[in-house]
């Protein structure tokens, strides 16, 4: 069912939903961007639809809602431990189609990888409902069409912001609420069908690419800042930290904290050895994970083509171009056989 709502009506819905849900959406924060005089679009809790940034792409993804940057897994004393709860409320996430597809990738890693379930992730993820924001047009760095992630399913509401109001395709039990506040409407779903940036994914990547000079080129450029992985909606690596309280060192908490394969220390081992010190090797590892290794296990690519890694890299390294270069190398290798 489709409904038309003006801003006040939509806020009426959000007010009712907020009684049982925490609502997150991309929000523009003036002056908080990485560079002087720039803004930041990132996910925050909202109370009104006017807070949502519908036009710009968010720099960070909504993954931090189900996979927090820092998450306390348990509090411990000398004798016992306690696992913190996540509250009773559900979670509503306003996000774009590529990000809904990114959650599917996170689900594979946290819920189905190796037959183990990450209970911390599951507890938050089971609460999530998606309100998908329609992309009016593709951003320059997006390549979702190449990755097959331009369409989304599994949402509760699909929203088109237009003409000062909102056209919404509503599924499931929320239809009653939208009927109360909105008027009936016609809506045909629109998804991005072409991006300016296009990638060609190699069917397979063999060892012949591993020693190629392109990785040395990336080594000379990449400064190992990790921004590409922090902004990526599908990167899911973490490390563990035990915090001991100053007033009683026998008590504390165990936290998990985001980690990145691009930064120093990720492969640190006892004795000071690290097996992927070269920044180009890290780039190769990340690329292989996103377009080959994950696919070998789950049948589709990990990268959703959101283009955030290209947007944030201070060295202007393009991940999309790197995929195309590897594809060209593989085609060249096949021709030379
Ligand atoms: S690798 Fe880059 S384009 Fe792909 S999902 Fe991650 S941030 Fe988006
Ligand atoms: S954002 Fe760019 S410079 Fe920073 S780690 Fe990623 S590829 Fe390297």
TrEMBL record:
Keywords attached to this entry: Iron, Iron-sulfur, Metal-binding
Domain of life of the native organism: Bacteria
Keyword Metal-binding part of the UniProt annotation: yes
GO MF assignments: iron-sulfur cluster binding; metal ion binding
Protein name, entry field: Anaerobic sulfite reductase subunit AsrA
Entry-linked InterPro entries: 4Fe4S_Fe-S-bd, 4Fe4S_Fe_S_CS, Helical_ferredxn, Sulphite_reductase_A
Source species of the chain: Desulfocucumis palustris
4Fe-4S ferredoxin-type domain boundaries: 212-243, 294-322
Pfam families in the cross-refs: Fer4_22
Keyword Iron-sulfur assigned: yes
């Amino acid at each position: 069912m489709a409904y038309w709502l003006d801003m006040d009506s939509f806020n009426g819905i959000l007010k009712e939903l907020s009684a049982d849900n925490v609502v997150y959406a991309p929000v523009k924060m003036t002056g908080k961007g990485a560079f002087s005089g720039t803004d930041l679009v990132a996910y925050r809790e909202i109370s009104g639809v006017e807070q949502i940034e519908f036009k710009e792409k968010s720099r960070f993804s909504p993954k931090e809602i189900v996979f927090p940057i820092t998450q306390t897994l348990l509090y411990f004393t000398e004798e016992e431990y306690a696992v913190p709860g996540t509250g009773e409320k559900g979670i509503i996430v306003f996000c774009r189609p590529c990000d809904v597809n990114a959650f599917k990738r996170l689900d594979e890693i946290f819920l189905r990888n190796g037959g183990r379930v990450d209970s911390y992730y599951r507890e938050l993820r089971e609460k999530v409902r998606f309100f998908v924001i329609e992309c009016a047009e593709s951003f320059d760095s997006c390549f979702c069409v190449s990755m097959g992630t331009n369409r989304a399913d599994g949402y509760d509401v699909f929203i088109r912001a237009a003409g000062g109001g909102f056209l919404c395709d509503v599924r499931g039990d929320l239809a009653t609420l939208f009927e109360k506040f909105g008027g009936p409407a016609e809506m045909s779903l629109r998804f991005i069908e072409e991006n300016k940036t296009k990638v060609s994914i190699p069917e397979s990547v063999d060892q012949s690419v591993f020693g190629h000079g392109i990785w040395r080129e990336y080594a000379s450029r990449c400064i190992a800042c990790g921004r590409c992985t922090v902004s990526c909606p599908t990167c899911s690596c973490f490390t563990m930290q035990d915090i001991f309280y100053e007033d009683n060192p026998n008590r504390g908490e165990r936290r998990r904290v985001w980690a990145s394969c691009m930064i120093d220390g990720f492969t640190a081992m006892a004795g000071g050895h690290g097996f992927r010190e070269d920044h180009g090797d890290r780039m190769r590892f990340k690329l292989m994970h996103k377009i080959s290794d994950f696919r070998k296990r789950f049948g589709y690519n990990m990268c959703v083509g959101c283009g955030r890694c290209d947007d944030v890299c201070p060295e202007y390294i393009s991940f999309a171009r790197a995929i195309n270069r590897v594809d060209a190398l593989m085609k060249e290798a096949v021709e030379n056989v």
